[in-house]
């Protein structure tokens, strides 16, 4: 019991999977997912440090699930829309569709900065500079380059990008 309390406090204070016992790899998949989402928003503006492959890809899954849910909601409303409209309620459907259409835009806007900082930390974990983010300017090839780095295993030399005083052990990739 004391061990789980200690691990919970470490989880709360963690700034990266590297700060968790054994790099977070001993967590159940659900805890890895929720920890990655929590760290994503906790490190909103933080570019120093590293992000493991697991931390990065759990966030990709989270964002895909949210985008998929809103796409499904929009499709269901657009398919069933004409059946809900009566002479008294066309503006209700219009307002609902505007909300469903605006949410993905707002969602991406809110998540733009932390996604960039997460990608910068992912580059650091592979012992590469975050300057490589500028490769995204190159159509298609930039996405391929970023994908390769996102799939690359962690490099122990990436510790040089950690903030001063960080003592996280490097987990196996």
How does this model look, in words?
This protein is mainly α and 173 residues long. The protein is built from five helices and no strands. It has one domain.
Ordered list of secondary-structure elements with their pairings:
Elements: H1 2-13, H2 29-42, H3 53-84, H4 90-125, H5 141-151
Q: What does this entry show, briefly?
A:
With 173 residues, the chain is mainly alpha-helical. The protein has one domain (2-158).
Percent of residues in helical segments?
55-70%
- Pairing-aware structural class of the strands and helices? mainly alpha
Element string (H = helix, E = strand): HHHHH
Q: Unreliable runs, pLDDT <50, ≥5 residues?
A: 1-10
Note the main attributes of this structure.
173 residues; mainly alpha; 61% helix; disordered N terminus
């Amino acid at each position: 019991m004391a061990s789980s309390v200690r691990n919970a406090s470490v989880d709360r204070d963690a700034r990266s999977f590297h700060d968790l016992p054994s790099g977070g790899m001993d967590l159940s998949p659900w805890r890895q997912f929720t920890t990655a989402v929590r760290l994503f928003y906790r490190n909103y503006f933080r570019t120093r440090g590293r992000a493991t492959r697991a931390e990065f890809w759990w966030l990709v899954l989270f964002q895909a699930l949210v985008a998929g849910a809103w796409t499904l909601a929009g499709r269901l409303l657009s398919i069933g829309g004409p059946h809900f409209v009566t002479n008294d309620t066309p503006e209700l459907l219009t307002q609902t569709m505007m909300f469903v259409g605006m949410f993905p835009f707002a969602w991406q806007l809110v998540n733009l900065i932390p996604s960039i900082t997460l990608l910068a930390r992912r580059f650091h974990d592979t012992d590469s500079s975050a300057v490589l983010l500028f490769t995204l300017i190159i159509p298609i090839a930039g996405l391929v380059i970023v994908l390769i780095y996102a799939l690359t295993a962690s490099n122990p030399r990436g510790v040089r990008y950690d903030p001063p005083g960080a003592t996280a052990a490097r987990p196996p990739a």
